[in-house]
Amino acid sequence: MEVKKATPRVSVGVPVRNGGKYIEAAIQSLVSQTEQDIEIIISDNASNDGSECYLKSLPDLDQRIRYFRQEHALRAYDNFRFVLEQARGQYFMWAAHDDTRDIDFVATLANRLDQDVAAVLAFGDIFIVTPENTIGRMQPFPFSTVGLGRWRRMTKVSRLQCFNIYGLWRTSALRRVPYSYCSWWPDLPMMMSAAWIGYFAYAADTRLYYFETPKAGIDRVKYQDFASRFNLPVAVLQLVVATYRSCSQVGGPAAGLFAAGLVLWKQVVSFPGFLARRIRKAFVR
Predict the structure, then answer these.
(1) Is residue 263 situated within a structural domain?
(2) What's the CA gap between 220 and 222, in Å, rounded?
(3) From first to last of its 285 residues, what are the pLDDT tens digits of the chain?
(4) What is the domain count for the chain?
(5) Is this model's pTM higher than 0.70 or not?
(6) Residue range of the domain that includes 264
């Protein structure tokens, strides 16, 4: 009988709630990776769509899979943190229950981190997949912060979507990022403080196929956090505070204030577009 390796090269965390018709393809994308020295940590967040039976059967089919079930649903952010807490590998990757990736994705990114010990994260190219476009379209995403100082890294990261959260992390660096929850853009404070710790590196010729659901940001918050109400000004304030708290813990008060200012400015600049989208949506109804 094969003995499970105590410290795999890569830990993959799969936080899932009601994965439905997408979860099998997502899992297959992970177990088929050319990098075989991995563990796959599934946290079933009290799914009630029937996917529990499939998920809990997986460790019997592949000994690299560890299955946990949350009896009471966690906020999505906390479920992401849960799988990280279980990780034993040198490198760590989050995998959403509806995304897939090239079979060499993990190996290519791991090799990039092996070659560049100062990088905290490696990521490749991204294709956006939708229910209408299952092949996907290339998304330009110039996320690399190689060669930039800490202040410039945070400035660049503040302006981007957080697609690269699904790249491969150096586990020890990721665990230095403080827990700082907010409901609106909850991954942004984490990415900002990670940018202070180290830089993000690009690895060519491997792709993540990111499944984009047709939800507005507010609808997404309500779904992920089980909230019946949402107040945008309050949520933005919480985001700014969470950013300050996270970045000040890794870089001191000056870094916290700088990062919070960047995030606040981003929200101010993007508000007219957000408002226009909400108005259009109201008229379409």
Answers:
(1) yes
(2) 5
(3) 344 567 899 999 999 999 989 999 999 999 999 999 999 999 999 999 999 999 999 999 999 999 999 999 999 999 999 999 999 999 999 999 999 999 999 999 999 999 999 999 999 999 999 989 988 899 999 999 999 999 999 999 999 999 999 999 999 999 999 999 999 899 999 999 999 999 999 999 999 999 997 654 555 565 666 666 778 889 899 999 999 999 999 999 999 999 999 999 988 877 555 555 555 555 555
(4) 1
(5) yes
(6) 10-284
